[in-house]
């Protein structure tokens, strides 16, 4: 496909039928504007954030008392407060939105790798939330208390979260594949009053027994434990933990009745999410109920065009912020399509089978998954009926230009592809798609509404057409409320505000394009600096990972001879060895596709590449190992044993 033409152009009819177009017309009427394009809408949303976020509240019919003031103390980003007089409840908005009125309609559809399937109506979901709410209150859980869950992505997990949010408790979750120390590094910091876990789970065609881990974690947390049946024996697991109960025992004696919702301030804590934590104990990032709700409503309703009854899918675990993003789809009345397990068990058709059967409208996944499907030789476009699919989203790492091309050639021609980027830090996106603009190969469509996002050079000057730091220059509702156990805010300030005064510096290496789109070149703390020139690692991956001989790559800068040299590690395809000829081919590909400065000084084959639980490769951890420095939190990794492959490599000593 040619890069001088868009991969996808929305029709005028589809634009004018979209919720974002209706929203723009409402803003024109309410504020006396004449906005006619996404660029104009975004510019206004940043210039008048008070007006914009009020319009989002009204357009998305937020349930709660908004109050008079919209934005106060805005001069200092860390002091800014949105809707300081408002009260609302997050769970009320998710359980009472458009489409939820028909109690028999489907709220959640679930598939597990072990062939488990289930369908939950809104009535069934509300009934369990009601019983869980009563049980939590009976256990003395109230506003501000923490509920921690080590759970699969299943309907009961959603119900537990909603029950906690309904009474103002703070929810925090991880997936059951976390190691014992990884769970304790997270939940041990926040001191929960309730620990929720499953009895077992399936992954890669194997039953994963977690009885010993559950017993050890529960004992060290020292709080009441609830065991939810999934793939094992809940009673057996509960019996091994002092004072633990099964889900059935926990809600016994509590009958379903209308859920009660405690309305609390806009900034009341809702979630505690955790940084990847591969170079230290994870940071505990606290997000507000109001900020999360408004930001997710904006992204689901306006940027994704989601409506009541549409099927929303994201391939995620409960240890990734995309799970939190996914469940907010209930607020617009969407039907959540949950999946737990491996997307390649038994083969790579699993998720596309699901998409075809349930007629997904939105299919969310990771760039790594798209690349894996491409390399597997599958062509869902010809093997599956994806007529209902109108939007595919990709995140987790930058989607390569070849990944963009594959979506249109291998998955579906007439589809909006939205590469998105943001993160745990804001529980949402800084840059993402929108239904009003074309999709260009290799580019994220643009900045999110209401976000004063820009790209700055090292001197704090905005730059166009060159790489720099992704920043946000004005406050926004989904900024964290605080970091847990950070009473003076020092960790919070150090994370985002040390680079530029009063400016959020996100840590992404980014670039504006000629189409007003964005390219993310990787994390700025992982950028390479050979000869003092900053290079994004994604630029190298985009070349190397297109070669059939290379399954996956990881690139670091190694301190060498008073400079930095580029070192490329490659996990090769099955049956391939790293010959001198292949090394020459890789270097030639990088030189011609990127630049001579990108060419690695060293190329080394490794058997595996370490990654986080959400699938992100960990360049910083490998860099630490190569330089002989300790990695403090290997429990954050899905495959920590892979780090040993990078220790004391003789070739890196010459």
Q: How is this structure best described in words?
A:
There is one protein chain. The strands form nine sheets. A seven-stranded mixed sheet has the order 6-5-18-17-19-20-21, with helices on both faces. A five-stranded parallel sheet has the order 8-7-9-12-13, with helices on both faces. Helix content is 31%, strand content 22%. By secondary structure, it is α/β, with parallel strands linked by helices.
Taking the sheet with the most strands, its summary is: 7 strands, mixed
Distance between the termini: 42 Å
Helical segment tally? Answer: 21
Strand content: 15-25%
By DSSP, the count of extended strands is: 32
- Assign an overall shape: globular
Helix content: 25-40%
The averaged pLDDT comes out at 94
Report the C-alpha radius of gyration, rounded.
24 Å
Low-confidence stretches: none
- What is the structural class? alpha/beta
Main-sheet strand order equals: 6-5-18-17-19-20-21
SSE topology:
Blueprint: H1 12-16, H2 19-31, H3 38-47, H4 49-59, E1 64-65, E2 71-72, E3 81-82, E4 87-88, H5 90-95, E5 106-112, E6 117-121, H6 122-138, E7 146-150, H7 155-166, E8 170-174, H8 180-190, E9 194-198, E10 200-203, E11 206-209, H9 211-221, E12 225-228, H10 234-239, E13 245-246, H11 247-251, E14 264-265, E15 269-274, E16 284-288, H12 289-303, E17 311-314, H13 321-327, E18 335-340, H14 350-358, E19 362-366, H15 367-376, H16 380-383, E20 391-395, H17 401-411, E21 416-419, E22 421-423, E23 428-432, E24 446-447, E25 453-456, E26 468-472, E27 482-483, H18 490-496, E28 504-512, E29 518-523, H19 537-544, E30 550-560, E31 563-572, H20 580-593, E32 602-605, H21 619-626
Helix pairs in contact: 2-4, 3-4, 6-7, 8-9, 15-17
């Amino acid at each position: 496909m040619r890069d001088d033409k868009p991969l996808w152009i929305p029709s005028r009819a589809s634009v004018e039928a979209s919720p974002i177009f209706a929203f723009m017309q409402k803003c024109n009427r309410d504020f006396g504007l004449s906005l006619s394009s996404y660029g104009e809408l975004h510019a206004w949303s940043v210039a008048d954030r008070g007006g914009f976020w009020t319009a989002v509240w009204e357009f998305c019919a937020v349930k709660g008392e908004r109050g008079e003031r919209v934005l106060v103390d805005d001069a200092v980003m860390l002091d800014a407060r949105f809707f300081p007089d408002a009260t609302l409840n997050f769970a009320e908005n998710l359980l009472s939105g458009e489409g939820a009125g028909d109690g028999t309609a489907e709220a959640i559809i679930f598939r597990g790798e072990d062939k488990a399937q289930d369908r939950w109506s809104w009535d069934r979901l509300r009934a369990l939330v009601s019983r869980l709410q009563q049980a939590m209150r009976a256990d003395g859980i109230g506003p501000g208390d923490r509920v921690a869950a080590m759970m699969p992505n299943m309907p009961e997990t959603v119900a537990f979260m909603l029950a906690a949010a309904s009474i103002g408790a703070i929810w925090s979750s991880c997936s059951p594949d976390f190691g014992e120390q990884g769970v304790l590094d997270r939940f041990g910091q926040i001191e929960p009053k309730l620990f929720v876990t499953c009895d077992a789970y399936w992954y890669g065609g194997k039953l994963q027994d977690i009885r010993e881990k559950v017993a050890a974690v529960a004992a060290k947390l020292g709080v009441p434990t609830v065991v939810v049946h999934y793939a094992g024996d809940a009673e057996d697991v509960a019996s091994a933990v002092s004072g633990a109960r099964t889900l059935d025992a926990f809600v016994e004696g509590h009958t379903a009745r209308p859920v009660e919702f405690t309305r609390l301030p806009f900034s009341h804590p809702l979630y505690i999410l955790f940084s990847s934590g591969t170079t230290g104990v994870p940071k505990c990032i606290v997000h507000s109920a109001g900020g999360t709700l408004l930001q997710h409503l904006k992204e689901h309703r306006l940027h994704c065009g989601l409506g009541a009854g549409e099927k929303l899918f994201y391939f995620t675990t409960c240890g990734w912020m995309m799970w939190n993003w996914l469940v907010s789809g209930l607020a617009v009345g969407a039907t959540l399509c949950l999946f737990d397990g491996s997307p390649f068990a038994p083969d790579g058709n699993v998720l596309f089978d699901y998409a075809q059967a349930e007629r997904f409208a939105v299919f969310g996944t990771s760039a790594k998954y798209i690349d894996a499907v491409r390399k597997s030789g599958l062509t869902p476009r010809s093997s599956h009926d994806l007529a209902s699919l109108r939007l595919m989203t990709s995140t987790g790492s930058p989607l390569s230009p070849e990944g963009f091309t594959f979506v249109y050639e291998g998955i579906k021609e007439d589809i909006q592809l939205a590469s998105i980027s943001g993160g745990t830090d804001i529980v949402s996106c800084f840059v993402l798609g929108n239904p009003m603009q074309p999709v260009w190969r290799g580019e994220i469509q643009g900045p999110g509404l209401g976000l004063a996002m820009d790209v700055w050079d090292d001197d704090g000057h905005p730059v166009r057409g060159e790489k720099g730091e992704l920043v946000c220059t004005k406050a926004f509702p989904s900024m964290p409320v605080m970091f847990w156990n950070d009473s003076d805010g020092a960790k919070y300030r150090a994370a985002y505000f040390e680079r530029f005064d009063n400016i959020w510096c996100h840590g992404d290496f980014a670039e504006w394009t000629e189409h007003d789109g964005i390219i993310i070149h990787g994390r700025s703390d992982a950028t390479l600096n050979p000869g003092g020139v900053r290079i994004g690692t994604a630029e190298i991956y985009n070349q190397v990972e297109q070669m059939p001989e290379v399954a996956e790559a990881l690139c670091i800068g190694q301190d060498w001879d008073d400079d930095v040299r580029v070192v490329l590690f490659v996990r090769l395809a099955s049956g391939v060895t790293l010959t001198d000829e292949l090394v020459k081919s890789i270097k030639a590909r990088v030189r011609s596709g990127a630049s001579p400065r990108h060419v690695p000084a060293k190329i080394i084959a490794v058997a595996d590449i370490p990654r986080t639980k959400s699938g992100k490769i960990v360049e910083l951890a490998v860099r630490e190992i190569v330089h002989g420095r300790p990695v403090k939190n290997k429990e954050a990794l899905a495959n920590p044993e892979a780090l040993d492959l990078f220790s004391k490599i003789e070739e890196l000593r010459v």
